[in-house]
Amino acid sequence: MMPAVLIEKLQKRYGSVEAVKDVSLKVEAGEIFGLLGPNGAGKTTTLRCLCTLAAPDAGTIEVSGISVVNNPRQARQRLGYIAQEVALDKVLTGRELLELQAALYHLPNAAAKQRIADTIALLGLEDWADKRTGTYSGGLKKRLDLAAGLLHQPDVLVLDEPTVGLDIESRSTVWNFLRQLREAGTSVLITSHYLEEIDVLADRVAIIDRGTVIASGTPSDLKDQVGGDRITLRIREFSPMDEAEHAKSLLESLPTVQEVIINAAQGNSLNLVVAPNSDALVGVQQALQTAGLPTFGIAQARPSLDDVYLTATGRTLLDADLAAAGNRDLKTEKKQNMR
Amino acid sequence: MSRTITPAKTDLAEPRRLDLPQSNLVADVVQETLALTRRLFIQLQRRPSTLAAGIIQPLMWLVLFGALFQNAPQGLFGDRVSYGQFLGAGVIVFTAFGGALNAGLPIMFDREFGFLNRLLVAPLASRFSIVMASAIFITTLSLIQTAAIVGMSAVLGAGLPSVFGLALVAFIVLLLVLAVTGLSLGLAFALPGHIELIAVIFVTNLPLLFASTALVPLSFMPRWLQVVATLNPLSYAIEPIRYVYLHSDWSFSSTIMQAPWGTVSLGGALLILVGFCVVALSSIQPLLRRRLA
Ligand SMILES: Nc1ncnc2c1ncn2[C@@H]1O[C@H](COP(=O)(O)OP(=O)(O)OP(=O)(O)O)[C@@H](O)[C@H]1O
Ligand SMILES: [Mg+2]
């Protein structure tokens, strides 16, 4: 079956900034594909190229086999795009926005009416459809935005960080909704910098960092590849450095322990990589006891996508986000995305 | 989002939309342009203050400027012509010009808010629909304003041209509005933000008014200003309208203006306006093509 989205060796630069250096990914029909990366990784730029808002410098992009560069109009018809920032006309009602949307996608008038009513019902917007969008809450706006993106029944729904700024309930509403879309056969491409979101939602994922895809596969494959289980250990709520160092050398000598990292940002807690499915936890606890060290908290877990990112880049996603946040000028960036 | 959304399976699973119906390009352009125009009119209807201000302002011009020169010696502005009669044409043109100059603002805000992206990811048959919708909207608005000014001038005693005269007035307003709307839309895509656009509107609007024959005849001006005023396209809209107002026996060969370099006939002024319109609209083509490609 033809992939829903095929991106190969995409490159896009803005002046001296290489927003996208090397992105290849394939979204199979009917799956949820997650694009995960820290701030400034190039997620939005990739989606903007896909949705014909930005012209790629190099590489190919196809939607259901249609080149978005050569046949933009056909490609647009098959794509639904939910931008990172919800942009509604606050003077229009939800229904009027959908009517505009229907005309822009050239639905015949009679069909449009029915389709709009269905979509409003689908997203539970009946009580709000005839109120101006200026009166909507954040969650409602997002729902209307989803409705607008789905109105023309695209093959692929593209969502750029759809749950940022939403409360937990709205977030899970969106998640459930995307799962139901998948059940119905729509392909979904979603970006996020929430690990959990991609982990619970995506069938497959590509991790992107500084414009380059650094890993891709199913979340569980990726986690298996980095290997080992993770143990987080806190000797005390806050351990002095020398105590942490001491524990580190002690634990490194254990056969089941592969690696020990001191996390200074977390009160000198210890992050251990241990043999998967082993009884490493017991061994660690015993070793601490013998050495007369207390245990404030200890937990063993399978590696997370953050560990995948950490292994590939040497920093955690959170650190990357924080670092990027310091380097950004939101005002200029907003302008950058203007057409 | 307090409720869970549980779409019926059938809702989602209905057969995928068949391919783009072999739709007709023209029909598509009409459909999308109408929808975009409708949006602008809904906005206007829900924010009627813009329209109200756009009608009240020129009426105030008429009354206030008219009063200002009420006691000017008879014949100063032409044989048996009151200043009120003289002024109508200037206010019509100035109002249409001001409205058209602002045409780019909504597009600029759409750019800034990201609403334009919504339009650009849609499979528009032609992205020029976006520009055309603005032009239709502004033109309609200007014609409504013009009608109000014509009506008010008549009430104030400026008389009323014949039906042909009125048609000519409408045609001139149309040409001017199209040209200036085009330039403004071009600026809306060329400039970085609404602050810059407003600045440009601000420094263009009043100077062009004063450097035209809107408020005083050419003969009142020092020579250098005469030169400027006869280079100003607004004068070529104002003078024909004024002539039609003051002479029921107008024809295309009537002399309407004594420019420093020669006489300008009514037909000549119209040609100049058409030329201005063509130049304005074609000069923004490359820019729009690039921005909307
Ligand atoms: N139009 C533009 N002009 C110049 N630089 C740009 C433009 N768009 C994006 N960039 C830069 O390209 C890089 C990638 O940006 P992009 O918005 O794609 O990242 P992102 O992964 O979506 O980040 P976030 O998670 O913050 O949304 C950033 O360094 C950004 O500043
Ligand atoms: Mg982004």
Automatic annotation (TrEMBL), chain A:
<protein>
    <submittedName>
        <fullName>ATP-binding cassette domain-containing protein</fullName>
    </submittedName>
</protein>
<dbReference type="Pfam" id="PF00005">
    <property type="entry name" value="ABC_tran"/>
</dbReference>
<dbReference type="InterPro" id="IPR003593">
    <property type="entry name" value="AAA+_ATPase"/>
</dbReference>
<dbReference type="InterPro" id="IPR027417">
    <property type="entry name" value="P-loop_NTPase"/>
</dbReference>
<dbReference type="InterPro" id="IPR050763">
    <property type="entry name" value="ABC_transporter_ATP-binding"/>
</dbReference>
<comment type="similarity">
    <text>Belongs to the ABC transporter superfamily.</text>
</comment>
<dbReference type="GO" id="GO:0016887">
    <property type="term" value="F:ATP hydrolysis activity"/>
</dbReference>
<keyword id="KW-0547">Nucleotide-binding</keyword>
<feature type="domain" description="ABC transporter">
    <location>
        <begin position="5"/>
        <end position="235"/>
    </location>
</feature>
<keyword id="KW-0813">Transport</keyword>
<keyword id="KW-0067">ATP-binding</keyword>
<dbReference type="InterPro" id="IPR003439">
    <property type="entry name" value="ABC_transporter-like_ATP-bd"/>
</dbReference>
<dbReference type="GO" id="GO:0005524">
    <property type="term" value="F:ATP binding"/>
</dbReference>
TrEMBL record, chain B:
<keyword id="KW-1003">Cell membrane</keyword>
<dbReference type="GO" id="GO:0043190">
    <property type="term" value="C:ATP-binding cassette (ABC) transporter complex"/>
</dbReference>
<keyword id="KW-0472">Membrane</keyword>
<feature type="transmembrane region" description="Helical">
    <location>
        <begin position="48"/>
        <end position="69"/>
    </location>
</feature>
<comment type="similarity">
    <text>Belongs to the ABC-2 integral membrane protein family.</text>
</comment>
<keyword id="KW-0812">Transmembrane</keyword>
<feature type="domain" description="ABC transmembrane type-2">
    <location>
        <begin position="49"/>
        <end position="291"/>
    </location>
</feature>
<dbReference type="InterPro" id="IPR000412">
    <property type="entry name" value="ABC_2_transport"/>
</dbReference>
<keyword id="KW-0813">Transport</keyword>
<feature type="transmembrane region" description="Helical">
    <location>
        <begin position="89"/>
        <end position="109"/>
    </location>
</feature>
<dbReference type="InterPro" id="IPR013525">
    <property type="entry name" value="ABC2_TM"/>
</dbReference>
<feature type="transmembrane region" description="Helical">
    <location>
        <begin position="163"/>
        <end position="190"/>
    </location>
</feature>
<dbReference type="GO" id="GO:0140359">
    <property type="term" value="F:ABC-type transporter activity"/>
</dbReference>
<feature type="transmembrane region" description="Helical">
    <location>
        <begin position="130"/>
        <end position="157"/>
    </location>
</feature>
<dbReference type="InterPro" id="IPR047817">
    <property type="entry name" value="ABC2_TM_bact-type"/>
</dbReference>
<dbReference type="Pfam" id="PF01061">
    <property type="entry name" value="ABC2_membrane"/>
</dbReference>
<feature type="transmembrane region" description="Helical">
    <location>
        <begin position="197"/>
        <end position="220"/>
    </location>
</feature>
<protein>
    <recommendedName>
        <fullName>Transport permease protein</fullName>
    </recommendedName>
</protein>
<dbReference type="InterPro" id="IPR051328">
    <property type="entry name" value="T7SS_ABC-Transporter"/>
</dbReference>
<keyword id="KW-1133">Transmembrane helix</keyword>
<feature type="transmembrane region" description="Helical">
    <location>
        <begin position="259"/>
        <end position="281"/>
    </location>
</feature>
